[in-house]
Amino acid sequence: MVTDIIEDIKNITLYIMDELNIDRMPTIEEIRRSNYRELERMIYSNGGMTLWAKKLNLPTKKKIYRDSSLTKEEEIIRGIKQVQEILKINCMPTYSQIRTTLENGYSITGLISKGNGYRYYANLLNLDLQTSETNFGIDYEFKTLDMLLNKGFEVEKMSVKHPYDILVNKETKIDVKTSNLHNTKTGSFFKFNIWSKKHNCDYYIAHCVLDEKIFKTLIIPSKELRSYNFSVGMRSKYDVYKDKWDLIKQA
């Protein structure tokens, strides 16, 4: 039994390290964002993070302090430019590139998300977006607009300065999330990042995309989500919200 726990902790930790492209012990925040809460439970039930970092012979992440001489926007811009220099790219780095390149990458992407947003900083610095999850997400925002229009809703696409994507019937705030299927050793799922526990919308419209087609669309009340991310399996507890467009009409 003990051997099984050790093996499980080791294997899941190594998998997260590979997923995040890091060579140190993942932090609790990184474990949570990777949607492996079971690993967090196993670690804290069996000695804690420091003990397991030593057992696995892994260094821990150094604490990064914010530069108090910089505004949040200046810190974001500096982080973006550092990633560009390290990776030798001229375009806007993706969230994953920022997180895996900088020691304070999660802090920088958090500031971006809670501030004016990813596209705002790309526009501010006159940087092209990569063909990535960002452009992928933008495409589905416009597809969602069309879907809502076809269902008789009045819709308005919001600017990059807004913390949500679409305003429906002049009052209901919608944030659009899109994910391809992720295949892992422990199963297959669609993963959606929220970035903040404080919701700025009334509903999330989550598109699960399989083989470049929408496998299912979920209309989830934001009050039902209480973490930084959520995962949806091929069969999921969130399936009760599949195609529940009437929820928006009732809002």
From TrEMBL:
Gene3D superfamilies: 3.40.1350.10
Domain of life assignment: Bacteria
Protein name from the UniProt record: Protein NO VEIN C-terminal domain-containing protein
Organism field: Lysinibacillus agricola
